[in-house]
Amino acid sequence: MTARTETDDPRALAERAGRALEDASALEILTWAVDTFGARFCVTSSMEDAVVAHLASRVRPGVDVVFLDTGYHFPETLGTRDAVEAVMDVRLITLTPRRTVAEQDAEHGPRLHDRDPDLCCALRKVAPLEEGLAEYDAWATGLRRDESPTRANTPVVGWDEKRGKVKISPIARWTQDDVDAYVAEHGVLTNPLLMDGYASVGCAPCTRRVLEGEDARAGRWAGRAKTECGLHG
Ligand code: SF4
Predict the structure, then answer these.
(1) Where are the chain's structural domains?
(2) The predicted structure's pLDDT at residue 5
(3) How far is CA 92 from the centre of its chain?
(4) Which candidate in 229, 230, 232, 233 is catalytic?
(5) pLDDT reported for residue 56
(6) Are the CB atoms for 138 and 29 separated by under 8 Å?
(7) Is 229 a catalytic residue?
(8) CATH number of the domain at 10-186, please?
(9) Better pLDDT: 172 or 162
(10) Residues 106, 112, 117, 119, Cα dihedral to 10°
């Protein structure tokens, strides 16, 4: 039902697969993605945890896992990236922005993230990801519906209008308890900051610990209207 044909419009393919796979398991969704896109499929990971990378490597050992190094990450995040590369059966690809933080500071002034976080995210996240994803037709993310109201309608397979690619969120229907259970069962690497009060881990200047009762992404760009970096919005 969700097989790809030569003449398939990729948007129609994505929408059809999203409906057909809504109740499928994460492994079934990833198996469809690997069967459909082969080497033109990758996983993107923020290195908050390696759950989707682990799932995908079970389906396709050596799968491409793309990490975006903005230059502003916590050391714990870079350490998680290094550990994933060392112990998991994946091909880790690190994308970097065109300019270093020092070069950006020279051009735009220091702490652009405080003055214009949308521009900072556009330069350090959105642009390098778009360049890095050019060789793929489909990418998988770890987005979950329970993370925030803005993610409540995330399809398990959808069409990424901005990039013209199929976007797969195999754990969209999972809860935090599902993630915790998978991590415990499979000994999956997680970012140490998750044990230190952080519920969602992004760039250091724009991430704080969450308070009791806050949703998982409340610690990202806290105090600002901004809730997404532009990768998923
Ligand atoms: Fe810049 Fe903050 Fe966006 Fe990171 S999350 S790219 S530091 S604005």
Answers:
(1) 10-186
(2) 61
(3) 14
(4) 229
(5) 98
(6) no
(7) yes
(8) 3.40.50.620
(9) 172
(10) -30
